[in-house]
Structure formats: structure tokens, C-alpha cells
Amino acid sequence: MRMTETSDLWWKNAVIYCLDIETFFDADGDGTGDIAGLAERIDYLAELGVTCLWLMPFYPTPDRDDGYDVTDYYGVDRRLGNHGDVVELIRTANDRGMRVIADLLINHTSDQHPWFKSARASKDSPYRDFYVWRSDTPPDTSDQVVFPDKEDSIWELDEKTGEWYLHHFYSHQPDLNIANPRVRDEIMKTIGFWLELGVSGFRVDAVPFFLSDVGLQPEDKEVGDPHTYLKQMRAFLGRRRGDAILLGEVNLPHDEQQLYFGQNGGDELNMLFDFITMQNLYLALARADARPLVDALVRRPPIPPDCQWATFLRNHDELTLDKLSEEERGEVFAAFGPDPEMQVFGRGLKRRVPPMLDGDPRRVRMAYSLLFSLPGTPTLYYGEEIGMGEDLRAEGRMAVRTPMQWSDDTNAGFSTAPARRLVGRVVEGGYGPEHVNAAAQVRDPDSLWNFIRNVIQTYRSCPELGWGSLTVLDQPHHHVLAHQLTWHTSSIVAVHNLSSEPVTVPLRPAVPGATAVMDLLQHGHCDVEDGAVELALEGYGYRWLRVMHDGERRLP
């Protein structure tokens, strides 16, 4: 194993940190976080160990969908700053060893975008075909809407022209017509523009929806296989900046997800979020039974060597459970969100991890240890590193998009503005800033922040976790996951107890000639006798072990 191999495909063992600029830190005191404020907090993220910053939308917007309704792909929302601020942020992040990726929102625009304003004004508009229209009354499509509590169709009648336009999301977010070469050209120019300003790639929003051919006429389908356009995007990205990535939001079954990596050696998306493993992880936690998670991991299809899965416990949306069966989803609801106010869209939860796990620090730390030890690239959502909670009074997904809790000062140290002017309400109660804040945790060696910082440092020293091949190790306890990741001749074994009961786990690492296992999160090692070792785990205990051989020269 050569560490230099890991520097090319940086995304294989990165630590991604997602944040919304407007809720992170307010530098100018107007109640809204801004780019200058984020730049002031870059050292906090660097000290934590973040290597890739994922910025949620910062483009001009009417803000009816928290920035995902864009009016200018080339602009910066003036509440947040300007292009100069973006360049300074990227430069500062790069100086600390952090790359920056941005949300690429190409499924839809805001209905206030100049393109759509022109398109709906006249059927003869040059921008009419930037969107998808139909003149006949659409059938019932209530089963296809993304937000069933807000919309009952994916078609909306536009009164002025008497035709319906397509929108998979909100009716104020008309879908772009990806079959139109001019639309594809605009998307390429958008990608090129932000690459020139220094971003290292994009998180691509709602990929299956913008590749959908719903509503297209036969003559429009010149793209043929919709994946052709993803290949073109990837090729363009590679020409403009060879080490840039496309990280896709593709919430589909594993066999369908595989198609989005590309069938020609990985020529489409570089990375995909693994929604299936995430959902089964919560089912495993709810049952205190590792088998659902094992099933998800072993059913992952093989992917090209240049590609990667992105793993996560929490993201900026609802914690979706849509790929579980109704019965399984009911189990997770009962365990982690039994009250209707904790649920959203009938398919997910609007909660953060610590409240779901009843604030049990053993269980919370075990969950994050598990996240970082799974094969793939871990992604954190801002505030996870300090154990922030949610605001259940907020509507839908906004429950987990609350101001970052920097200190126990007024407004959690997020802003000096009056509370009524804040972009969002600060969490109250047991997870409020007087109990949960970054300033206190950074100084406390026993805090969750320092635990995650240590896990990140250990993860970064273990390229096997991002590059290795997976083996689930046989052992007799259903509530324990023991897995091994091997890259070249080096192996890491991770063992996690999903139960509150202590257990002794007999293991036989799948490495010939192993003489010892070195504990990476604690000090010490265990000798391997006749190829086997026994590990004692406390309730919700966990161990990361490097398999050692005689004459091993690398640091543990």
C-alpha cells in the first residue's frame, strides 16, 4: 500500500461537511449567515478535520424553498455576499487543505427566473422550450409528486397560455427541459463558470428527475439514453478541471443506482449518496440487530475503482425511509419518531441524531464510529459534530436547518441581530445553546466534538476505509457488526455493538499470517492466537483494529 495512491482520487477518503451559509455564522449582524462569516469559521472546520466543504445553494432566490428555487445560476444571493466573497472563501478553504463543492440545481428553476417569466408570457417565447409543456389535460399524477402534503400533481396549469408545465417538486419550481440543446449548453456554462471561480465540483440535486423523459415529445428525445447527458457533463468537467467531482443525489435501489456511475468504467457520477445503506442502518439501530445493515452492505453492487459511495447519518432534507417496507418504516418511526410532529411526508423523520437516540452519549458515539468505519466517504451535516437537536415547531425539513450553535451567548453566538430578525429560530430546551455549543465542546477533551475530531483523524490515517474491499466477519451475535476492509495487504477491522448489553465477540480476521490487532481509537493491542482474537465490548461499544503482521513497519 502506498499513501501516494490516495492523493489522486481525493474523494475516495475525504471528509465532507455540508452547510447552509445563511444558518452558519452571521458576520455583519443582519440576522442571516453570510459568506464572510463562513470564512471566519474555516479554521474551526479545518481543526475538526474537514477536507471538503459542500455549500448548499447560495444563488439569488425568492427563498420559497430555502434557496433551491434559483433565479440566476451565475449569481450570489446579495444577503450572503458577492462573487468576491466566494473567491476569498474558496482561497481560504484551499489554504487550509479544504476543497469546496457547490450545489448544482439543474432539475428546475424558480418560477421567478427570467427564463420562465419569458416562457410563460407567450408560446412564441424563445425560452418556451426551456421547460416542458403540454396542451392536453394531464392524468392523475398525485402518486408522482415529491411533496405529497403540498402538491397533488406534477403538472400546473398556466392561465395565460392555457397549457400545463411540468414540476416534480413545488409548483413554483418548473422543471427544465433537458432535451433542449440550449438548456444543456446553459448548464455546461454554469458548470464552467463556477469551476473557473475555484470550486472542486458539484453536488448534483435530484439527478433521476432531471434525466426523466416525462412530458417530452418523441422528437425531443434526441438525447436518447438520458445517461448520455451525464456522460457529457462528466467529460466536460474532466476537460475543465481533471480532479473535480460530481456527487449525485440518487435515491434509488442499489441496482438502479449503479447505472448512474456509468457502465463504461465510471464515466458518469463520481460519487452517489448511499440512501439504501443509511435507511437500513436506522432499521438496524431500531432493532439492535445488525442484519439489515449487513444485508444492505453486501447487496451493494460493485462500482468502478474511480467511483465511491458517500455515507451519512443525517442530511439537510428529511431523514427519508422511503425504501424500507411499510412495516420496517413503522419500526423506525416507533423507535426514533413516534409522534406525528416528528414525521414528514409519511416517509421520513424531521429529527437529528442525538434526540433520536435519547441523548445517550454511548449510542451517539457508536453511531458516528459506525458511520466513519463503513466503506465509503463520510458526510457530516453542520452541527452534527456537537450533537445539535432539531426544532420540531419548524415546518418540514426546516426543523434541522436551524442556526449553528457557536456559544451560550445570545442567539447561540450565531448573530448579534435581534432574535426576531434571525433567519431561523434557535433550538430551545435540552439541545439549546446553553447545553450544546461549539465553544464549550472545543475546550472539553471529553466532548462529542473532540470524539469526532479524533475519529476523523483516525479515519484519514486508514485509507482502507475508503479504498478497501469489504468482508463481513462471521461471529455469533446478531446485534454486532464486525466488518473488515482490505486494501492491498493492509486491513482494518471494525466491530460495533448495537445493543445496550455487553458482549464478548470471537473474531477471525480474514488475513493470513496476522499476529496482532492494534486498537486505533484506544491504546493497546491484542495478540492473535491461531488466527483468532476475542474482543470484549461494552453496551454500544465499538473498536477499530488494524491487523498487524510480523515485521510491520507502518505506524498503527
UniProtKB/TrEMBL annotation:
**Superkingdom of the organism of origin:** Bacteria
Q: One GO BP annotation here?
A: carbohydrate metabolic process
Report the coiled-coil segments: none
Annotated Glycosyl hydrolase family 13 catalytic domain residues: 18-420
Sorted alphabetically, which Pfam families does this protein's record hold?
Answer: Alpha-amylase, SupH-like_C
Q: What is the name of this protein?
A: Trehalose synthase
Q: Which organism is it from?
A: Georgenia yuyongxinii
